Amino acid sequence: MSTAPAAAVERGSLLAGGTRTRLAQAGPAKASEAVVFVHGNPGSADDWVGLVGVAAGAGKRAVAFDLPDFGETIAADGFEHDVPGYAGFVDAALRELGVERAHLVLHDFGGPIGLYWAATHPDAVASVTLIDTGLLPGYRWHSLARIWRTPVLGELFQATATRPAFRFLLNRKEPRGLPREFVEAMYDHYDRRTRKAVLALYRATDDPGGMSEELVGEFAQREIPALVIWGEHDAYLPWEYAARQREAFPAAEVHVLPTSGHWPFADAPETVERLLAEFLAA
Amino acid sequence: MPSTDSHSPIIGDGPAYDAVIVGASLAGCASAIQLGRAGLKVAIVEKQPDPKAYKRMCSHFIQASGVPAIERLGLLEPMEAAGAVRPHMHMWTKWGWIEAPRERSKPGIDLRREVLDPMVRAAAAETAGVEMLLGWSAERLLRDSGTVAGVAVRNREGEERELSARLTIGADGRDSRVAELSEVPVKTFPHNRIAYGGYFEGPPPKHSPDGLIWFLDPHWAAAFPTDSDLTFYAAMPTKDRLPEFKEDPEAALVRFLADAPEGPPIRESRLVEPVLGKIDMTNRMRKPVAPGLALIGDAALATDPLFGVGCGWAFQSAEWLADSVLPALQGTESLEQGLEAYRRRHGRELAGHAFFIHDYATGRRMSPVERLMFSAAARDPKAAAIFEAFGTRRIRPQQMLPRLLPRAVAVNARHALAR
After folding, report:
1. Nearest-5° angle of CA A168, CA A232, CA B391?
2. Where are the domains of chain A?
3. Which top CATH class is A10-141+207-281?
4. How do residues B54-66 score in pLDDT, each as one tens digit?
5. Contact A271/B237, CB-based, under 8 Å?
6. What is the pLDDT of residues A4-29, one digit of tens each?
7. A254 part of contact set with chain B, CB < 8 Å
8. Which residue among A175, A257, A275 places its CB closest to the CB of B94?
């Protein structure tokens, strides 16, 4: 099965909840139904540019934006760096964009944020694509998160996260290594604001699997179409959670990519693009 | 006086046959052809009554190492006439594709077992001196003072015959009844992958008819084009991926291959037979000889199907046995000498390969040394040529390592400096 060619992606900005964020979008600009990409940590709207084009190629409006204090976006004063705070920002952005129904595409910490938004706006969810994220019952934070959550140690870590150290840390657990430009761009955005935001977000999230049980039943009864893509060598979120997403999304199509790590859209872009395009076109 | 395990007498003054072979699959038939052509009287018994029976759970892939033995049997041309393809190999690794220069690599041969098995069986049945008994199973071994002296067989109607022979050959596969009855020493090695595969028709994979293998570390996948414009797609993930394959074997197989890097066009293809799976593939390595007895093919060494060596080694081990025991069966030396020669040949040719195969069959990921060699082979044509000769089992590990390891170090050092 061949997929449609990717559409051109426009760059712009968006004011949502008092925060001016960067925006990447493609496809029919006025459509009230859109594919909405929510990045993880570290990450930004840039993570999604390729997939935004692919989603638009599948005939959908597609939007991606920086979360506050990620990418090049500075959070508004008083922004709460926690899951409800970020989900509130997503909601504000979608309202500003006129998006009434969303095909969520979530990665990493974008998962808890996007699913929190979905739980509070269940009628607005058209579908869910989970990329190395999802509901994580029983999950215990990975080692880096535990460092970030520890006072002083977290600050020390962020203070010493030089570019070579960052590059080494990211790549050492990736089975095929990540594209150099992807890692470099990620570090370029990993500035003081982002480092502080990361500490705040992780420290505010005591139990990453905490809301899972309650949401599983709620999502399951709505029979939301879902696509799950997971790198089998994800060092942060174990691939075994991929199949467990069916507890909340029983019809989910689950793909565990055998040679991918935590960023399948970076180390296996063709596969992720194909899967997403087919899913959105179905 | 010779006796059976149950101490019943055998009929006649001397052995009725020079050799009796249990199992009329590839190894057994190859053995029957060779011994029959040498003028010996051979009985070959097979529990399947249908002469067109064939082994279903097989990738049909025959490595280049097995081709000379097939050629010597006179089967190469008939196989090609029946549509067999002659593949070279392309191996995906995370460092790139390993593709040996064409002029330095040798092709294997691929023909579905549905076609190959009846062909080989017919060739054996037509060989002068060979008597084929279909629908008979081995019941007991006949013994003469501790030496195996033939086999008692029984058909589905309960009729029993005792086939006395100077040499009894077990060619009855991985779960060899002959090996079990003879109580030869056996070593087992764990296998922690599962195997699922099926034939598809549709657009050919790239480089067809060459074979494509993905070393997904620790998983494995393959696309083997074959006769009738079919492609055998196979997946061998570790056992932790079993639930999805059990739930829907076809969907899991298609997803696994399609999601592989540079995956083949399996989603655009149509499955023509049900996907078959195998979960227990414990490696078994048996002592291939006992007094009056030899084991060939999988009965001697049932090893990981991941490396596609089973069919080739069936033909090759039959050839080694014939070469080793013919002088004895023709009366110029003792059978004991012949069997010892076979044991040594079998060990020399296969023990090194088996060691490495069994080690990787645990489902582990590649070791640093393996990563060194695979990456060098993906980066350097000369390293790829050595790697290909080893992978197609044309050279042994002890021939490969001294040539490939130093080159792998140099290639990777150059690569690191160039970055």
Report:
1. 90
2. 10-141+207-281
3. alpha beta
4. 999 888 899 999 9
5. no
6. 777 889 999 999 999 999 999 999 99
7. yes
8. A175
